[in-house]
Design goal:
With 249 residues, the protein is mainly α. The chain contains five helices and four strands; from the N terminus they run ααααββαββ. Helix 1 packs antiparallel against helix 3 (97-179) and helix 2 runs antiparallel to helix 3.
Length: 249
């Protein structure tokens, strides 16, 4: 069932190695699936959205401010024209009836124009106030979001530190343990682990703990007849099958 040979003690070390590999895998999964990681990703997406909205709002605000400035200058020009025409009338500079009627008509037209322009200015002012309010809301939310992200980042980093310290200790133990395993056995274990996720499993009560399938009578008889130093493989999952006192042989 296998060409590699190793002492029963070396084979048993593979189970400890598999436990450490499982612990390292759990720690890696825990690190990548921390709630803080997912929440930070969500907040970062919202922060990017807020930044884009702020840029759009600032751009619209700038355009509207310039438009309002132009409208206010138009109002000032019309008002100045009205003032000049009124001054001519008040000074008695217009004597001809026809010219007087034309001037009065012009003043009336200018006043209507002034009213229309002032309505435009008022509308622009209201729109600008809305944009300023929106800009301030976005700024406040961005500031609040920044505070929340900073606290969340601190919690994530603290969790990362704890997980990394545990992983570091497990990696040290694994390196020490791997050094005690014969090279050819370790190579086989690593090859299986790379393809199967788990390189070795115990035979317990006639069942492979890797694939959780019970071995048939023929396989069990063959295992009973195998030398203690023969490295066995599960016929189903092909993991190294390590015999233990609980194997049920």
């Amino acid at each position: 069932m296998g060409a590699v040979k190793a002492s029963p003690q070396s084979q048993l070390r593979l189970l400890d190695l598999a436990d450490l590999d499982a612990e390292l895998a759990r720690l890696d999964h825990r690190r990548s699936s921390l709630p803080e990681v997912a929440e930070l990703a969500r907040l970062e997406a919202r922060a990017a959205q807020l930044k884009d909205e702020s840029v759009v709002t600032e751009t619209e605000l700038g355009d509207l401010t310039r438009e309002q400035g132009r409208a206010e200058r138009d109002v000032d020009q019309v008002r100045a024209r009205i003032d000049r025409d009124r001054a001519r009338l008040d000074a008695g500079q217009v004597a001809a009836a026809r010219e007087l009627a034309t001037l009065q008509s012009e003043i009336e037209s200018l006043r209507k124009r002034q009213g229309d322009l002032e309505e435009i200015v008022l509308e622009l002012m209201e729109r600008r106030e809305g944009l300023v309010s929106r800009r301030d809301e976005l700024a406040a939310e961005r500031e609040s979001l920044g505070t929340e992200m900073a606290a969340l980042t601190a919690r994530r980093d603290a969790a990362f530190k704890e997980i990394d310290e545990q992983a570091g200790r497990a990696s040290e133990r694994r390196a020490q343990l791997a050094a005690e395993v014969p090279g050819d056995l370790l190579k086989l274990y690593e090859q299986i682990r790379d393809s199967r996720g788990v390189g070795a499993a115990a035979l317990r009560a006639g069942r492979c703990e890797g694939c959780h399938l019970s071995l048939n009578t023929g396989d069990l008889n063959q295992i009973r007849a195998s030398a203690p130093d023969e490295v066995l493989r599960c016929e189903e999952c092909r993991r190294i099958l390590v015999r233990t006192p609980e194997s049920g042989l």
